[in-house]
Every structure is written in structure tokens, then in C-alpha cells.
Amino acid sequence: MTTSKGLEIELFIPGLLGLKGVELPAELPTPAFDRFFSAARGRISQPNSVAASGADNPQQRAGTEALADSFGLDAASAEHWPTAAYCLSVDDPAWDRSGFWLHADPVHLRADRDQLRLFDGGMLAISPEEARELVAELNAHFSADGIRLHATVPERWYLRAPEPVDLRTRSLRSVIGATLAEAMPSGADAKRWNALMNEAQMLMHQSAVNHARAEAGRAAINGLWLSGAGAHAPLKLAPDLRLVISEDPLALGLAHAGDLPTASLETSDLTKQLAGIPAGRVLLVEQHLGDALRRRDLTAWSEALQQLDRKLQPMMDWILNHRDHQAEKLTMRWHDGTGTSWSWTQANSGSVRRWLGSLVRGRAASLSAVRAKVHSAESRQ
Questions:
Q1: Phi, psi of 75 (to 5 degrees)
Q2: 27 secondary structure, DSSP code
Q3: Which pTM was predicted?
Q4: Helix axis angle, 249-257 to 58-71, nearest 10°
Q5: Nearest-angstrom CA–CA distance, 227 and 169
Q6: I need a surface site. Which of 32, 51, 65, 376 has the fewest CB within 10 A?
Q7: Whole-angstrom distance, CA of residue 44 vs CA of residue 372
Q8: C-alpha span between 62 and 267 (Å, rounded)
Q9: Nearest CA to 309 among 8, 13, 40?
């Protein structure tokens, strides 16, 4: 996290340059990103330990810590945030913010030789009717245990526990496609909750919902992934944050808990909002690209990239064309949480060098050129 003297637009977009070990499609037209990268300078910092996937995913962990840092929160505890409560506050705005909650995300569990792999709801195309029927069956089964599930969004479910639980869990993003032997919940209450989730798996396997999906040749919704346990509480966020732009429920939930205004790239008066912020930091969080790559869904990645580029165009035009901004300095910085970053500044000062350290010599012509630089650096490590 940096302290801005002028206005800084921070773009946190994991997956924009791809994921190590995943071959991307042919070059796609991205005029908004090309314009930014052709005017920006960058730093490449890819740690040797970065992995493409796995239960202990250094790249995902780095991204989680970077997100925490961008919000001014403790990065060391980011893996154990009570994320369920903050996401639920976005998915169900009428919720009263009470109780102890966990993500209980619907997943597909698949045996792979002697290992078990997990695939998230983003790959399952769960209908609202399927979600309601499965949750009703689970709630009937677990009513005596005081457990209740809510499917406010078909692919994102939440579980209210009757009392606080001692569970150490991994986020769903960190285990997509991974083997689960080392990723299962731990902690004093893990044995009981792992047993409960085994019961849930058996019940879901027998459900008419999954029989119908099997007949249609669709993957079963046959498990729940628990994570993000905790209660909702107000947050003290970075004092220089002025606005959060995102569709990601966690980013929006953190912003709301810190009384920060939020917007989306499709907000009609977004550039007017930006013009009214003379100093401080605007944070854009976009997670669709990284999620698509973790699923190895290159079609979804390509579609998300081009959609994001189109949505960014008005803001990019405003930033790169602006000459009369009332801020002392106008800066735009992209990063993905791994240490790689690119920055453009309206003020021609040495501050860019101080931020970025060792610079990549010269300017890249496009997003694809930046991607080539980064992957070339990776291959030499």
C-alpha cells in the first residue's frame, strides 16, 4: 500500500498476464490496455516459488496478501479473514449482520487416481432452482444441529453456525483444481465439521437434483467447501482510500464494512466521481480473469479480458487524456499481487522510479508485449 499525494488509480487485476504453466489463446484486441501499457513503465518481480495451482498456492496467497495490503488490512492474517460475513453483506443486503458465518460453497469433487480434486460452482452452471432444492434438503437434515444454509446466489452459499467454531480453512480460490489432502480444514473443531461435510456429500449425492444432472451428462454438485469463518465487524481501512470499483463480493464487502463508497466500471457517472476526488487512492479489483485461469477455462478468460477492456475504455480515456485534473499528481498503477506492476503518471517526476525500483528498460507496445516480457523473465528463473 502506498500513500498518495495526488490521485492514484490502482488496478488490482490478477490473471491479466496469464498464469504460469497455462498457455493463453492467440493475441486478442485490447485497445484500452494497450494504450495504458504503451505509456507506462513497469517492474517484473516473479518469485521462484510461484506455482500454477495447488493446495498451498503461493500465487493465490500473494494475491490475497496484496488485496489485504491495498485495503490497509493486515496481510499476515488475510488467509483467515471472516470473508463469509463480508461477502454475505453484498449478496444479501437485507441481512442484519448478526451471527457466525462460513462460506459453504457448492463444489464438484472428483476422484483423480488416489487423490480428490475440487471444481467450484463457476464451472457447474447451478440454476436457482437446483440451489434452492439442495439447500432445502441440507437444512432439513441439519436442523437438529442448529446449522442453516442460505443460497443467496446459486454458486455462492453461506452457512450460519449455532456458535463460533475453531476452524482454519483455505479460500475456495486457493483450492480450485487442486488436490485436497493438505487443504482440509484444521483446528479444534475440524473433526466434527469435516464429519458434517461428509454427511452433506452423501446427502447431495443421493439428491434428485444430482440424478437429473447425471442424466443430462452434467457434473454433480456433490460437496461443500467451508472457508472464511467469522462474524461481521466494522473495519478500519487505509486512510487514503476514497473509492472501490469492483463486482467482486469480497472487495465490495470490505469497502462497505469500512464505510467506503463503491462503484462499478459501468456506473454511468464514474468519470465524474473520479473528477471529484482531488487526492487519495481509487482501488479497482477485478477477479474474473484469475478465476477463469484457475479453472483452466481459456474461453472464459478471453471473454472476460475483452469485456474488461471495453468497460475500462471510458476511464482509461479520462485518465490518459486528462490535463487539467485538480490533483497534485495523477497516477495509474496496475499490479497482480505477485510483485509485477506497471505505472503511468501525469506528473513527470522521479516518483515513478522510487515506486517501481528497477525498471524494465523502455516501454512495451501493448498488453501482449508486457505478457511476453513477464513470461520471458519467468522462463529465465
A1: -65, -30
A2: P
A3: 0.88
A4: 30
A5: 5
A6: 376
A7: 11
A8: 30
A9: 13
